[in-house]
Design a protein that fits this description.
This protein has 187 residues and is mostly helical. It has five helices and no strands.
Length: 187
């Protein structure tokens, strides 16, 4: 190795603290320096290869997709629970409405033709109404206080009043007797 080659190698690696070219220890100097000063390149951090970068990108993509899917499944389960509760509420309200209509028909039939069977059927319908109303109240109990569906809780006194009035009609009819013919009593 010639003295010129050694000098060039020293300038390229620059192991001294400060040399005549003004570079400091550990800095690399470009071979293209032809008398002009170039900024030395100092590297920070660790260089990651292309394979590792692609692997990190792929793994992060899978993780992000997994988080999105987990969030979507959680949201879907919440929506499913709310839909199930809504369907149950609808079924209970329909059942309650139907039993109200049947009670009215039975009460009308009882007034026209009083029988103990009508009284028993009406009492069974009243039990079904109270059961349906209990389930409706349980479902609407989870709703906020200002929700209009909370008004369904006010049906309990109405049902009780209706049952009391029907019971009064039944008691009065029992005093008169179920077997009496209304037409015969008029004559």
């Amino acid at each position: 190795m010639t003295q010129f080659d050694q000098r060039a190698r020293d300038l390229l690696t620059c192991d001294c603290r400060s040399n005549r070219s003004g570079h400091f220890e550990g800095q690399k100097v470009s071979k293209k320096s032809s008398g002009t000063r170039e900024r030395p390149s100092v590297r920070w951090g660790v260089r990651i290869g292309l394979r590792e970068q692609m692997a990190v990108l792929g793994i992060s993509g899978v993780l992000v997709t997994g988080v999105i899917c987990a969030a979507a499944l959680h949201y879907a389960s919440i929506v499913q629970r709310e839909a199930s509760a809504s369907n149950e509420l609808k079924a209970r309200v329909v059942s309650l409405s139907q039993s109200f209509l049947e009670s009215g028909q039975i009460a009308t039939e009882f007034l026209r033709k009083p029988t103990e069977m009508s009284v028993k059927t009406h009492a069974d319908l009243l039990d079904r109404q109270l059961e349906d109303l209990g389930r409706v109240e349980k479902l609407i109990g989870e709703l906020p206080d200002d929700d209009p569906l909370r008004q369904a809780a006010s049906l309990q006194p109405v049902i009780n009043l209706y049952a009391t009035r029907f019971g009064n009609v039944v008691s009065a009819q029992r005093n008169l007797g179920f077997k009496e013919n209304v037409r015969a009593s008029r004559a």
